[in-house]
Amino acid sequence: MTVILVLLTFATFLLIDHFYSRKRVVTQPVLMAAKREAMPRPGVVSGFQVPENLRYHPGHTWALNESPSLVRVGMDDFASKLIGKVERIMLPQRGQWIRQGQKIATIFRDGAAVDMVSPIEGSIADVNDSVARDPMLARKDPYGEGWLVTVQSPDAKTNFRNLLGGALARWWTEESASRLQRKMPQMMGALAQDGCVAMENLTDQIPDKEWTAVAKEFFLS
Predict the structure, then answer these.
(1) How confident is the model at residue 184 (pLDDT cuts 50, 70, 90)?
(2) What residues have CB less than 8 Å from 89, skipping those under 6 apart?
(3) Which of 19, 42, 88, 118 would bridge with 104, disulfide CB 3.0–4.6 Å?
(4) What mean pLDDT value characterizes the chain?
């Protein structure tokens, strides 16, 4: 029920943001190339980095346009800290068709498995073999070398309209951090206020038997 209420709130904010941002759509393609060449320093919201040039799925994955139809995908900073000392990340095969909001990767930790969902729909163009070999790379550098896959998305423009950006992305990150604190009061010291960074391994504060349920809730899987 909590997830449903949060998603309904998210949908309302997304509708508002859609009308607010219509006037800015014309300038976005011009700015995209510059953003790819020089990634801005991520802002920090409730202890988590939220780069302005990315779009986010509520399940804590991100998407970045590399071209009009090629999209790079990864997990966000909140997810990277929540997964903790991950043992393995299973990625899809090249050429596999992925739907927006459906499984794109599986995280294995302490014998448990949790899926992460895709922010974009399309065919897998490439996978990050470095992450497959060293899954901790996704936790250490989720917005850089820890990317997961690239997707050839014929309808990327429409898909991106369903994602979070700007103020909505920051709000969603703050809401996620607040919900995590309410679920796990013992994590109060692990999270941080804006301007500071949360602990790298939040799962140190979560008993193993509870991690799967918590991760599935936040990853919407």
Answers:
(1) confident
(2) 105, 106, 107, 108, 131, 132, 135, 138, 148
(3) 118
(4) 81
Residues 221, 50: Cα–Cα separation, whole Å: 22
pLDDT (0 to 100) of residue 193: 45
Name the residue with higher pLDDT: 148 or 22: 148
- The side-by-side arrangement of strands in the sheet containing 70-75 is 55-57, 61-65, 70-75, 149-152, 122-127, 97-98
Q: How far apart are CA 73 and CA 118, in angstroms?
A: 8
Residues belonging to the chain: 221
Contacts of 140-143 with CB under 8 Å at 24 or more apart are 140/80, 142/74, 142/75, 142/76, 142/77, 142/79, 142/80, 143/39, 143/42, 143/49, 143/51, 143/54, 143/62, 143/74, 143/76, 143/77
**Domains of the chain from N-terminus onward:** 2-219 (2.40.50.100)
Two structure tokens written together for 193? 């206020």
Q: Report yes or no: 98 and 122 within 8 Å, Cβ to Cβ.
A: yes
| 164 strand-pairing partners | 56
Write out the two tokens for 205: 């504060």
Q: Give the residue from 139, 134, 105 showing the smallest Cα distance to 119.
A: 105
